[in-house]
Specification:
about 240 residues, alpha/beta, Glycerol-3-phosphate (1)-acyltransferase, 7-stranded mixed sheet, 9 strands, about 40% helix, acyltransferase, transferase, Plipid/glycerol_acylTrfase
């Protein structure tokens, strides 16, 4: 219920200020489970990705969003609850398995599950290598995967910027559902998981027009931080 209250309040406000656009809404099923697999350019994706859809989109978010203290922690929990985020532990190992089970539960309940295969926001607006959790979800749940490509949200609100820029119209393109039924029963095969994930990322690259980088975004962030430190030390 709170999700729809937040959407009813924010929706008209966001439309008025930013005039967002959307393409391919007809590719998202009107009912039944599906995975929305998207690129992740900006914090603004949480708003503008689900905004055009008449259905609720449930996403998986790191548990830290829900454990903060004080006023900031309260409003952070309120926001992520309002945009349909379910907390998960992303520390790896058994925690990764728990995240998978949470995603499968959401899909068994007939919901739309929105996930970002890159695992974190792009540090520079390019599209990075996807993690294979999205493939395991797709093969174990046996539901369609809809590529979900955000456009211009990086330019509007890049990482580190607290407020969006005006004058940039964010957009979202929903691609045609991807069918991976030929791989059902092979979710333990790492080569299959990589092939499925790469197919999803290729579809996102085509929809978004982003340059693809064959490395994980988290690794790229570490490299950029090291380069920035070196530049500071040498100046």
């Amino acid at each position: 219920m709170f999700y729809w209250v937040v959407k009813a309040i924010l929706g008209p406000f966001l439309h008025l200020l930013f005039r967002p656009w959307a393409e391919g809404k007809e590719n998202v099923p009107k009912d039944g489970p599906a995975i929305l697999a998207g690129n992740h350019l900006s914090f603004a994706d949480h708003f503008f990705g689900p905004l055009p859809l008449p259905r609720k989109v449930i996403s998986l978010g790191k548990a830290e969003y829900f454990t903060g203290k004080g006023i900031k922690g309260f409003f952070t929990r309120l926001f992520f609850t309002g945009v349909g985020t379910v907390p998960i532990d992303r520390s790896g190992g058994k925690a990764s398995e728990a995240a998978l089970r949470t995603g499968l539960r959401v899909l068994r309940e007939g919901e739309l599950l929105g996930i970002y295969p890159e695992g974190t926001r792009s540090p520079d607006g390019r599209l990075y290598k996807g993690k294979t959790g999205v493939a395991r979800l797709a093969l174990e749940s046996r539901v369609p995967v809809i590529p979900w490509a955000m456009v211009d949200t990086f330019e509007m609100m890049p990482p580190g910027r607290p407020f969006p820029k005006f004058g940039i119209r964010p957009g979202v393109r929903y691609g045609k559902p991807l069918d991976f039924s030929r791989y059902y029963g092979m979710e333990e095969d790492r080569l299959v998981l990589r092939a499925v994930t790469d197919e999803i990322m290729y579809a996102l690259m085509e929809l978004s027009g982003q340059e693809y980088v064959d490395k994980y975004a988290a690794s790229a962030k570490v490299e950029l931080a090291r380069a920035a430190r070196r530049a500071t030390q040498s100046s």
